[in-house]
Amino acid sequence: MATKSEMKRYASLKDRKARAESDLFIAEGRKIVTEGLRSGCPCENVFVRKGYLGGDEEMNRLLSGREMEVLDEQEFRKLSDTRNPQGILGIFDYRNLLVKDLAEDTIIALFDVADPRNMGTIIRSADWFGIREIVIGETCVDLFNDKVVRSTMGSIFHNRFHLASDLSSTLSALKPEYRIVTADIGGADYRKRRIGGKRVFVFSNEARGPSRDILEISDEIVTITGKGRAESLNVSCAAAIIMADIE
Amino acid sequence: MATKSEMKRYASLKDRKARAESDLFIAEGRKIVTEGLRSGCPCENVFVRKGYLGGDEEMNRLLSGREMEVLDEQEFRKLSDTRNPQGILGIFDYRNLLVKDLAEDTIIALFDVADPRNMGTIIRSADWFGIREIVIGETCVDLFNDKVVRSTMGSIFHNRFHLASDLSSTLSALKPEYRIVTADIGGADYRKRRIGGKRVFVFSNEARGPSRDILEISDEIVTITGKGRAESLNVSCAAAIIMADIE
C-alpha cells in the first residue's frame, strides 16, 4: 500500500518540477501502461480505479506478481489527468529512457516544440519508422508531460531521449560526425536531399521555425512544398512526411 | 448589437444539433477569423473580448465596415471554448463550405475519424497539398466542432466538404469514375500504387480501421510500412504521408 505521503508525492508528478526532482512520471491508460511494463522500464506502482475491469491477458501476465493498488474515484482523480480516465496508470522511473551519448545513424531533434500532442505524435512516428534516438531541445514542452506521454501511445518506452540543455551546442557537438538537416520554409525539396550518411533531422515550432543559430549550424534546409492555401503544415505531419522519406 | 436571444442562440452553437439547425458555427482565434473573413464566407457576427488588442492590418481591413461587438469576459466565455481565448471569434454560415457534387481529380474521404484534432489536421494538410474536396463520413466527429475548426488553422474556409449520410454509398456512387484507394494495414506499399487518374483516398479511424464495406468497395489498399515497434501511426500523420506522395 502506498502511504499517504507517497500518494501526495505521486500526485505532485503532474508538475514538471516534481518530476525532475524524483525522476518519476505518470503514464496513464491501458495501452501505455502495458507498453511500459512490457519494455521493462522500472515501475514503482500501478494504480487502478475501483471497478476497473482489468486488462487483456497480456496485461494480466505483465502485472502478475506485482501489487496493483485499487483507488476510489476521488483518489484516482488526484493522479489522473484525463476527463474520462480508462482507470489505470503507472508510476515509472524515466532514467533509463534517457541517454547522454547519441550513437544511431539517424537522429531526430526537436526545437521549441511547445504543443504536447505534437511532440508525442512525433515520438510515435519516429518509433513507427524505427528512429530510436530523439533530442529534446531545452525550450520544448516537458517530455514527461502527461499529454506528451499519452500521445506517444506507448512509444515513449521504445525510444531513447537526450534532454539538451542547449540544443545548438548539442547539434554543434554532433556536427563532425552528422549532417544537420533542418526542416524550414524556403529550403530545398526534402525529396532531393543528400542520401546516406549519419544525419540529425531537426523539427521546430511550426509558428516560429528554427532559430538563427540552428539555421547556421545546419548543413541542409529542407522544405515540403505546398500547392494550396494553408500557411503551414502541422509539425507532426511535416516530421512524419520527412521521416517516411528517410531511406 | 446582438440581442439577448441571439446571444443565447450563438452560445448554443457549441452543440452539434444547434449548429445543424441553424447552419452556423463558431470560428475562434485571430488566424481563423481572418481566414474566414478573407474567404468571403458569410459572417453573421464578430465578437471580441473587452481589452482585445486588435489584430494586424489585414484583420482591420477585413473588419472595416463590419460591426464588431465587444463582450465582457463572462459573456465572451459563453461563446468561447478555449481555456485561454485569444479574444476574438466569428459566427459563420457554413452552407457555402458544403458541396453536393464532387468534381475534383483527387478527393479525400474520412471514415469514422473521431478525434477532432486529427480531423482538423487532415483538413489543414489537404489544403497544404491543394486537395480541395473532402468527404466526411457519417460516423466522424462533427466537422464544425470547435476543436476541428481550430485545428484546421483556417483551412476549413479553403476546402469544400461533402457530408455523407452513408459513406459506403457515396464511395460506390463515385466508383465508376474514381479509383477508391484506402489506407489500411496489410496493403501494398503506398509508394507503389497506380499513378494518375481520378482517385478518392480514404482514411479511417486509427484504432478500428476501415469497415468491411469500404474495403470491399476499394480498388486498392495502401499501407505505410513501419520498421519500429509502434502499433500504428497517428491517422493525420498517415494521411499527410500519403497526400505528400500524390503526384
Condensed summary:
The first copy, chain A, contains 10 helices and 10 strands. By secondary structure, the first copy, chain A, is an alpha/beta fold.
Class from secondary-structure proportions of chain A: alpha/beta
Radius of gyration of chain A: 19 Å
Number of domains of chain A: 2
Assign the CATH topology of the largest domain in chain A.
Answer: Alpha/beta knot
Share of helix of chain A, binned: 25-40%
Amino-to-carboxy terminus distance of chain A: 50 Å
Short descriptors:
homodimer, 247 residues, alpha/beta, 60s Ribosomal Protein L30, Chain: A, six-stranded parallel β-sheet, 10 helices
Question: Could you please describe the fold and organization of this structure?
Answer:
2 copies of one chain form a homodimer. Chain A is an alpha/beta fold. Chain A folds into 2 domains: 4-96, 60s Ribosomal Protein L30, Chain: A, CATH 3.30.1330.30; 106-244, 3-Layer(aba) Sandwich (Alpha/beta knot), CATH 3.40.1280. Chain A is 33% helix and 23% strand. The first copy, chain A, has a 6-stranded parallel beta sheet with strand order 7-6-5-9-8-10. The first copy, chain A, has a 4-stranded mixed beta sheet with strand order 1-4-2-3. In chain A, strand 6, helix 7 and strand 7 form a beta-alpha-beta unit. The first copy, chain A, is elongated and about 55 Å long. The model of chain A has no long low-confidence stretch (mean pLDDT 93). The A-B interface holds A 31, 117, 121, 124-132, 151, 153-155, 158, 224, 226-234, 236-238, 240-241, 244 and B 31, 117, 121, 124-132, 151, 153-155, 158, 224, 226-234, 236-238, 240-241, 244.
